[in-house]
Amino acid sequence: MSASATSATAPGKVILCGEHAVVYGRPAIAVPVTQVQAKVDITSAANELTIHAVNQNRTYRYTDLEPSHAIAAIIRLTLSALEIAKPPNAIITINSTIPIASGLGSGAAVSTAIVRALAKYFNRDLPTQTISDLVFQVEKIHHGTPSGIDNTVIAFERPVYFQRGPETIIKPFTVPCPFTLVVGDTGIASPTKIAVGDVRKGWEATPSHYEPLFDQCGQIAKQAYHLIESGQPESLGPLLTQNHAVLRDLTVSSPELDRLVQAALNAGALGAKLSGGGRGGNMIALVTKETASTIEQALLQAGAKRAIVTTIGDQIQSPISNL
Ligand code: PMV
Fold first, then answer.
1. If you placed Cys at 233, which of 127, 179, 189, 267 could pair as Cys (CB 3.0 to 4.6 Å)?
2. Which of 125, 49, 132, 121 has the alpha carbon at shortest distance from 91?
């Protein structure tokens, strides 16, 4: 039995530290950003499955989509996980406030919301790890060699320490002392696949240059994790700024990102860095509740297309054992 109407959401995310190096087995930390979200509604229809992408103002018939299309792929994978042989006669409406190709996890959030909404539509419960694994399959189609951090933080909807490996380490964690970030958007869409591909080319050409840089990112992520867990997030600032310098060495910054990072620091941020794939997209600045709006204004004046103030750790969190 399926429901006649249902909906589900998924948040955006930022990577606090360790991006790019995480693709090469170093740890990274990501946190959800609940101010932006993907929302998926499913309503029963008379015949066949159609998808209405509100942001693109387009409607597709499911059967017309290429199998590799991200939306077709996540629907197919989810139906298969739910052991449902025939796509439902329904309309899937996708609406997202997460800017695309900007490091905020828009693709993974849309996929996660689709999985959740389909499971609900069929009155089924999928474990969080299964949702994350399904979204990862689609991330692989589109990103080439994703680490898996995006699908993990978005599906778990809580801060996560992540290290890919033969035994991937996924540690969702609680934040005892909340901290505030300002997320500044360069407004430049920058597909993660290109930045990740360029880093790979560089690493293949001169691994001896790249490996120590990856190690530095990994060390920063470890130290950041300990500071957050031990309730000292205000001390994270220098680590974030140091991480930005390493990401510049990895060639994934840009003049616009550097300008926003510098503007945040000049306005009193405790630390700042690009976040995600880089070359465009978003940067983050660690601020206090008192300085947040000054730094938000400084970023907008320095050319940010928008800025979001988000506090990490004050969301109501389920106990980790319930995940
Ligand atoms: O651009 P985003 O937010 O999707 O972040 C990608 C993070 C990378 O480390 C660059 C790639 C990955 O798969 O981990």
1. 179
2. 49
Overall residue count recorded for the chain in this entry: 323
Task: Point out the ligand 1 atom lying closest to the alpha carbon of residue 149.
Answer: 14
Task: Among 194, 196, 200, say which to mutate for ligand 1: greatest number of ligand atoms within 8 Å of CB.
Answer: 196
- On the question of pLDDT at 112 being above 60, the answer is yes
> How many angstroms does the Cα of residue 316 sit away from the middle of ligand 1?
26
Print burial letters for 174-194: b (CB count within 10 Å at least 16), e (below 16). Answer: ebeeebbbbbbbbeeebbbee
pLDDT in tens, 136-169: 999 998 777 889 999 999 999 999 999 999 999 9
How many helices (H) and strands (E) the chain has is answered by 9, 11
Based on the residue annotation, tell me whether 64 is a catalytic residue of this protein.
no
CA separation for the pair 189, 197 (Å, rounded): 16
| CB-side neighbour CA atoms (13 Å) of 105 | 35
Using the mean position of ligand 1's atoms as its centre, give its distance from the Cα of residue 28 in Å. Answer: 10
- Spacing of C-alpha 213 from chain mean position: 22
Residue 313 DSSP one-character state: T
pTM attached to this predicted model: 0.91
Residue 96 three-state SS: strand
| H/E run at residue 275 | strand 271-275
* Separation of CA 93 and ligand 1 centre (Å): 26
